[in-house]
Amino acid sequence: MSSLLDSRGFEIVARQDFSDVTYLLEVRHPLMAKAARAGQFVIVMLDDHGERIPLTIADFDRERGTITLVIQAVGKTTREMQDVCRVGTFLHALAGPMGEPSHIGGQHRVVCVGGGLGVAPIFPQARAYKEAGAHVTAVVGFRTKDLVFWEDKFRACCDEVIVCTDDGSVGIKGNVTEGLRQAIAAHPDVDEVVAIGPPIMMKACAETTRPHKIKTVVSLNPIMVDGTGMCGGCRVKIGDGIKFACVDGPDFDAHQVDFDDLMVRLKRFAATEKAALAKYEESCRMGREPAA
Amino acid sequence: MAKRKTIRTIPRERAEVGEQDPQVRVQNFYEVTLRFTPEQAELEASRCIECPRPACTPGCPVGVDIKGFIAKIAANDLRGAYDVITQTNLLPAVCGRVCPQENQCEGACVVGNQLAPVAIGRLERFVGDTAIAQGWSNVPYIEPNGFKVGIVGSGPAGMACAADMAKAGCDVTVFEAFHLPGGVLRYGIPDFRLPNSVVDAEIRNLEKLGVKFVCNTLVGRLFTIEQMIEEMGFHAVFVGTGAGYPSFMGIPGDSLNGVLSANELLTRCNMMQAKDEGFDTPLPIGAKVAVIGAGNTAMDAMRVCKRLGAEEVHCIYRRSRNEAPARIEEVHHAEQEGIAFHWLTAPVAILDDGKGGVRGMRCIKMELGEPDASGRRKPVTVKGSEYEFACDLVVVAIGTNANPIIGQTSKIALDKRGYIATDADLATSLAGVYAGGDIVTGAATVIKAMGAGRTAARSMKKYLGLRD
Ligand SMILES: Cc1cc2nc3c(=O)[nH]c(=O)nc-3n(C[C@H](O)[C@H](O)[C@H](O)COP(=O)(O)OP(=O)(O)OC[C@H]3O[C@@H](n4cnc5c(N)ncnc54)[C@H](O)[C@@H]3O)c2cc1C
Ligand SMILES: Cc1cc2nc3c(=O)[nH]c(=O)nc-3n(C[C@H](O)[C@H](O)[C@H](O)COP(=O)(O)OP(=O)(O)OC[C@H]3O[C@@H](n4cnc5c(N)ncnc54)[C@H](O)[C@@H]3O)c2cc1C
Ligand code: SF4
Ligand code: SF4
Ligand code: FES
Ligand SMILES: [Mg+2]
Question: Which PROSITE patterns match (chain A) (predicted)?
């Protein structure tokens, strides 16, 4: 229990930079490493003035007692984390694993689709499907060849890996829906598709599989505060009902999700967020010594 | 000996208490009601007629010896008063501020039959605040008994249970999902009613008893209740996870971007300090705000919005002022602060501004019909009375449901509504696991949650074979 009582917070034990916006943090939390399952996420606070942001558990290592986060710097908090999180520094808060684990088991042939933010989060799912005995095809999308990461990890646990790039510099040229289409064409008996990424991508995947009536699961990423079902900020429209993504999800049946509603809700604080990032960048420019 | 006081010999009016001027206080988050001065407290204490069989104490959910502590104040023995209160109530500085006294102790006080009842809450707060200022705490000699007790949730129910188990000699750990302890006292009730410094002081007192607080721990997900008993060595567990799963109305426009729960607004503002410079959490600010509901949560949301700079704040409630569930003092304070109350009014739809936000609300007038099962007269709609008004933020405070996480992750039996099922001793269906507070009763009050924590502690001691 003592690791939980470390007043300094949660120690970062490894960091890797995949590109100028994507980075990996491995954080020590033995209990969480033990508990985490595919599909779950954490809530992080960088420091005591920070906001609470959700991040998917992209990997966990029970032996090392760590969990791995893969983060895209898109705004103030994720940019600041990119700037200040180093090996040996601490996150102020780290709570989880949160959310219902993905329902894995019983599937025969599965396609796991990850694009943008979703490439890392789809990894534990792909691995879990494989461990549960399914044939797994991974479809992962990047902008260009230089931004590709974790291809080796996917190859190690999947039967097939289809890489897609926007510019065609490696793999299929086009976005992940193109890869998904090819995977379905090659394996008409696919019985489940899982897609994680920006809402627009998940929506496109849902539309790709709908005519084939293939069960499709997406992991939704609405704005969260507590992650425990207490604020209702993360509510999403599923079929005729309202669900709280943090406790009822984050996985939902893609064919029931109102993605347009989700996309509008993700812009709730757009103006404030833009201003916060601009202010942060300004303060960096003012305060920073020329790079050594 | 002095002649016995009677209702005719005591001061007719309550001792005055300082209050921030409404015009001033809507611009800050400092406390609205000030603490009694020692003179005011003494004067108010003199209004207690020291009934041989006090009616007030049975009105208090934990049975504070009210006559006893007021007598100590009158005798200028504040430490003594503190000792009397803390025999039953761990958090006088909190309860003195937030108890709905008019329905509890003060509602039962006999002076109230003819005059304003003794201001028991304010006196209790005076004692509690004095204790904090003086650094008093009652740490008994504790002999460790080797039992490990786990508490899930750090709200008033968990705090009260933790204190009693620690005093009994158990090794007590409180697990909290948030990064800070306190439950609703921290994230819900705003500083102008209950400053966080008071919550901090009470938590420090628990730490003095040896209680450990472990935050960032979502029980059920990080480990289960069953694991606590079977693998982690806890001999008994208390679940006090509250009922903070907010309801929405199910009317058109519910999920527009300008619509949020009071819990979300209050958490962002209070716990995450979004209102203060230098904190990163965004805060939705409305120029014209409509708050739906008239409980304490609704009042807090309205008054927070006012302080955040809203020009207009409207309260929409389908019953009348008499039925409003909030503490009377909060309704009164909200009125003073210029909240526009639409009593007997129900929301019909929230209107879309075409960009995903809110441009207004459509409401309908209600009138009170026949009494319903709860004995309250049931509001019914008045045909043809629909009207619209402009607003850009809608805060929903119509109640909460049971938090589902413990139910999702353990075999603990729930009742029909999803709350944890217990027997009269607050034992759950799992051996050694007890539960109390809002997660058992549904949303209630701070003092009832504390009372439940103490009842559960008594049962847990019996279960562990400890003397009470
Ligand atoms: C369940 C879940 C899992 C996620 N997993 C990952 C992940 O593994 N890697 C990753 O890089 N990102 C992930 N995200 C998204 C991540 O939380 C946001 O990118 C991050 O909060 C942005 O914060 P910011 O201050 O840097 O940017 P901002 O400029 O503040 O926000 C950029 C955009 O991110 C979204 N956002 C902002 N605040 C929140 C919030 N509190 N909660 C959710 N979304 C928010 C909004 O759409 C906003 O417009 C996940 C989100 C959810 C809900
Ligand atoms: C805005 C507001 C104003 C109020 N005003 C008043 C008032 O003036 N007077 C009054 O008497 N009452 C008031 N109430 C009601 C009162 O606050 C509650 O009845 C009381 O706090 C219930 O106490 P509790 O300990 O059961 O739960 P809570 O106070 O809800 O505490 C539960 C705690 O458990 C934590 N938790 C939940 N799930 C888990 C988990 N799985 N693992 C770990 N931790 C978990 C939560 O984060 C929370 O901190 C108000 C409530 C609100 C929301
Ligand atoms: S705890 Fe609450 S109800 Fe009891 S005496 Fe104190 S203020 Fe009154
Ligand atoms: S009922 Fe009122 S007057 Fe009587 S003992 Fe209680 S507080 Fe004093
Ligand atoms: S994040 Fe608050 S309820 Fe889901
Ligand atoms: Mg942000």
Answer: FAD_FR (PS51384)
